[in-house]
Amino acid sequence: MMNTGNGNPVIEAPASLEALQLGVDRDTVKLSDSDDVRAMAVELARQAQRTLLLHTQDMEARIYDRLPFIEAVSALVRRYPGACFDVLVQDSGRVVKEGHRLVELARRLGSSIQIRRCAQQYRRYCGTFLLADDAGYLYRPVSSRFEGLASFNDAAEVARLGKYFREVWEHSDTDTELRRLYV
After folding, report:
1. Angle between helices 101-109 and 67-79 (to 10 degrees)
2. Considering the entire predicted model, what is its pTM?
3. Over the stretch 71-130, which tens digit does the pLDDT of each residue have?
4. Which of 24, 28, 84, 133 has minimal CB crowding within 10 Å?
């Protein structure tokens, strides 16, 4: 076990993430492979009650186009009035070409799920992250790799990443290619 800069201990991903509670457990979880990342994304989405914010290179089908994640997002926006899931994607080419369940879900659920393409000046960002409410995060510094960190309760890190997300969001628009998929 090692410590992060915020003083929270870093632990290996537990066999079951369901024991960790959003807004309660402060441990930082080390993610090492796609299974860890996929399980963490599902659990953060499952426990969120207000917002999910996703900044991604290409909507990463191996992680975010899986039924458990789609079901968790759908439950969030249906169960909690005013809940939202906002997605910033740097390159939508693969999504347009191959399809993605999140795009279909966004089409069905309207304004609760929005997908925008990052403005040109923000497309050099190498990392990817998912934020849950004001508490949880999943962060990978290199989007092409699965190594990363996550926490169910680190408001400072969520605020830092959330500030960047909102800045990019305000300068980004709905992708015209993705908009065609909504119709």
Report:
1. 20
2. 0.90
3. 999 999 999 999 999 999 998 878 877 888 888 898 888 789 999 999 989 988 889 999
4. 24
Q: Which two tokens stand for residue 66?
A: 């899986």
| 7 conformational bin, left if phi > 0, alpha if psi -120 to 50, beta if neither | left
Contact between residue 30 and residue 11 where contact means Cβ atoms under 8 Å apart: yes
Token output for 92: 């939508």
- Which element (helix H / strand E) includes 79? helix 67-79
**What residues pair up with 85 in beta bridges, in sequence order?**
52, 113
- Residue-by-residue DSSP string for the chain: -EE-TTSPEEEEPPS-GGGS-TTT--PEEEE-SHHHHHHHHHHHHHH-SSEEEEEESS--HHHHSSHHHHHHHHHHHHHSTT-EEEEEES--HHHHHH--HHHHHHHHHGGGEEEEEPPGGGTT---EEEEETTTEEEEESSTTS--EEEESS-HHHHHHHHHHHHHHHHT-B--HHHHHHH-
